[in-house]
Amino acid sequence: MVAVIRLSGTIGVGSALRRGLSLAELAGPINRAFKQPRLKAVALAINSPGGAAAQSALIAKRIRDLAEEKDVKVYAFCEDVAASGGYWLACAADEIYAQESSLVGSIGVIASAFGFQEAIKKVGVERRLYTAGENKSLLDPFQPARKKDVDRLKRLQGDIHESFKSYVRARRGDRLKGKEEELFSGEIYAGRAAQEVGLIDGLGDLRGILRERYGERVQLRRVDGEKSWLRRRFGLSHSTGAVGGGPALGLADWRPQDLADGALAAVEDRALWSRFGL
């Protein structure tokens, strides 16, 4: 039997309206996957444009810890995209596979923001910000960007990038064939090119590869997370609306903060996916 864990969506702590891929959400399914009877392997079905680096590292570490503890092989299968943090998750596997049209890689760190300092001047708003500690504020969107803030951000990004690169090197080893300055530049590769530079081990889908490895009669068992009370009560699925006959929610059912958080999360998610044309 092969346990299948689906890692689909952006990586990070979610909210009442949006489930993110985080260790808090995935610890249960991961633990249950490695406890399945007659377990031969664990498969990761990945479709993620990335997100929070810390959560990517935590999830990957939990998978590796249990794989080594149980002496079980892990396979990763990239679907539409396994990029940035999504590729970090894929590297938790012993072998990585993708489709020819899958987008893989993006080994880098990105941050984006908006500047509203001119907008608040036009509407007559005065920004008041008080801190204890000269470096407490970083790139306040309502103030002009300061060089020292940009330099601080780049240092932080550099530290995270080094951690990402170290993990890829440790997991892929001498299978990496491309030049590091290209592999770790944030470049994205389609499936066949990703195989040529060693980011993946081959082309193929989850069912096909696992049947090759473990026979035509291999049993694939998907291990899902439990829905939160809110999702159980209103029949919310992992990512969209009401399912299973549960009542759909109207705007009046949510607190303003829930709606604001959900709208912001949706914009952030859309921005991550759209970087890959999805």
Number of helices: 10
Count all strands and give the number.
Answer: 8
Radius of gyration: 21 Å
Please indicate the percent range of residues in DSSP E strands (runs of 2 or more). 5-15%
CATH first level: Alpha Beta
What composes the largest sheet? 8 strands, mixed
Mean pLDDT: 83
State the domain count. 1
Approximate shape: elongated
Model regions low in confidence, pLDDT < 50 over at least 5 residues: 228-254
CATH topology: 2-enoyl-CoA Hydratase, Chain A, domain 1
Name the CATH superfamily classification.
2-enoyl-CoA Hydratase, Chain A, domain 1
Q: How far apart, in Å, are the first and last alpha carbons?
A: 33 Å
* Structural class based on helices, strands and sheet pairing: alpha/beta
Helix content: 25-40%
Task: Give helix and strand order, one letter per element, not per position.
Answer: EHEHEHEEHHHEHEHEHH
Named at the architecture level, the CATH assignment is Alpha-Beta Complex
Molecular structure report:
- By secondary structure, the protein is α/β, with parallel strands linked by helices.
- It has one domain: Alpha-Beta Complex (2-enoyl-CoA Hydratase, Chain A, domain 1), CATH 3.90.226.10.
- The protein is 40% helix and 15% strand.
- Strands 1, 2, 3, 4, 5, 6, 7 and 8 form an eight-stranded mixed β-sheet that branches.
- Strand 1, helix 1 and strand 2 form a beta-alpha-beta unit.
- The longest helix is centred in the middle third of the chain and has 26 residues.
